[in-house]
Give the backbone structure.
Amino acid sequence: MKSYQEKLQQLTDELCGCQNTLQALGDETRQHLILGMMQIRAPEARVGDITARVNLSRPSVSHHLKILREAGLVTVRKEGTKNYYSFDPDMESIKALSQVLDHVMELMGITTERQTLS
């Protein structure tokens, strides 16, 4: 069984690994863009479809999609000159973030227990 310090180091490492995801999700515009993509309710969307939904310029949508893609949240499929964006079906970055949050809750619980016992 891991010690508290080992768990804390593991959490530190996991947080470092999730920085791109956290930064991508932390931006209000990208949150709006993600919700807009969800509202389209299609497996894939083009920049023009997303632009119409979120009331941002095409260059702005493309910029934010690039950040979401680099964070592993969105994938792109190219067909000729057309790009089709979708949420990453593997959801690896979301799974990693979920694991980090589980570990945060676990360590916060341990810390809270220690404070209660004092």
Q: What stands out?
A: The chain is about 70% helix and 10% strand.
